[in-house]
Amino acid sequence: MCDFSLFIFAGSIHVGVLSMQEMLRSQIDTNFRDISIARTSILEAITIYQNRTLPNHVLHVNFQGEAGHDFDGLSREFFTILWQQINCTYLSDGHVPLVTPFGMGNNIPSETWVAIGRILSHGFIVSRHMPYQIATPTLFFILTGQMPPDEMLLNYFVEMLNGTDRALITEAREPSDLSRKLEIGYSFG
Question: Cα(first)–Cα(last) distance of the chain, in Å?
Fold first, then answer.
């Protein structure tokens, strides 16, 4: 039997998120801000987003050396390509920021992380763009302001494990013989 409560919950979040996006978009300045950027140096957008006022405007993106008019398609492409590069440069394993208990990894300045946060929020507000590279529990927290359910955290944790560990944890989570679970537990210790 399928439990549809998660789908209903996800649907209500989706409706709430779209309402929030529409409300936020109605508050930004409708005067366009032109951005002309080369695809090969898309990460320069991080420097552009250090300007605090940019997220207050709708974008009009032009890729240097290419013909085109931005009727939201180029903006969406801009955010998609930018997040692919942010993923390769600033996120490890595609999901986890390069952050240590002692600060940002690789001596990445905090201004860069603030600009990346502006890119995340601005892309969502102006183009409904949400990068897939961000961990599901993190997106849940951003969108709802609440801690993700334990089951979501556990499932995401298991997804990040290598194949052998994932199989062991998955087997340990299934209802089965207690002695087998203890055997699995000892294999980690």
Answer: 36
Q: How far apart are CA 122 and CA 33, in angstroms?
A: 12
Structure tokens that stand for 4 in this block:
């549809």
What are the domain boundaries of the chain? 5-144, 150-188
Please give the CATH topology (third level) of the domain spanning 5-144. Answer: Hect, E3 ligase catalytic domain fold (3.90.1750)
Does pTM top 0.85 for this prediction? no
Transcribe 35-89 into DSSP letters. Answer: EEE-GGGTTHHHHHTTSTTGGGEEEEEEETT-----SSHHHHHHHHHHHHHHHHH
Over residues 120-175, the pLDDT tens digits come to: 888 888 888 888 767 778 777 776 777 888 888 888 888 777 788 888 888 777 76
Show the DSSP H helices in the chain as ranges: 5-26, 44-48, 73-90, 110-127, 136-144, 150-160, 163-173, 178-188
